[in-house]
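Please decode residue identities from the backbone states below.
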């Protein structure tokens, strides 16, 4: 009987320990929570500053790669867009795809599956939406960049790939 009582007591000990005052959840700490005011007297988050404007960008609500492939490029491939695409490509893409987009970047060389050659006929024959969607959703070895690049920035990269890396190849029409 003593062994049974001791076993039950030991089994309940961790449950009872949760009630002690030193066992507080990390959420109950001195910090500012989302939408909480810094000023204790004023409740809620601060209103947006006067004359503030929303961040520019193309909103997109695409559920998968198939839907993205059918999208038409809403960003004109002008000099400004291509220059911005080049800047973003150098930051996010060249490590794997290389500066020339041939899949020979420093990181890409170390991968078992080599990154796509963006200058190859296979990539040229794809729609702008396919390339944009691949950046958005990722692929077999490519991570998704939807959290790093907004929709408009991804279209700038597509414009750079088409105009510069593919030598001004005509963009494939959306299906």
């Amino acid at each position: 009987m003593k062994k049974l009582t001791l076993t039950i007591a030991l089994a309940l000990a961790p449950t009872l320990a949760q009630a002690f005052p030193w066992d507080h959840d990390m959420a109950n700490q001195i910090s500012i929570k989302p939408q909480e005011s810094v000023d204790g007297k004023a409740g809620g988050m601060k209103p947006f500053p006067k004359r503030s404007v929303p961040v520019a960008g193309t909103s997109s609500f695409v559920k998968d790669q198939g839907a993205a492939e059918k999208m038409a490029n809403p960003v004109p491939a002008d000099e400004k867009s291509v220059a911005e695409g080049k800047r973003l490509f150098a930051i996010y893409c060249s490590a794997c795809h290389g500066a020339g987009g041939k899949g020979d970047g420093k990181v890409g060389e170390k991968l078992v599956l080599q990154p796509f050659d963006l200058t190859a006929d296979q990539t040229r024959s794809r729609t702008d939406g396919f390339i944009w969607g691949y950046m958005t959703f990722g692929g077999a070895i490519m991570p998704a960049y939807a959290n790093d690049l907004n929709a408009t920035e991804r279209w700038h990269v597509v414009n750079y790939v088409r105009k510069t890396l593919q030598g001004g190849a005509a963009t494939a029409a959306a299906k």
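Observation: The mean pLDDT is 81.
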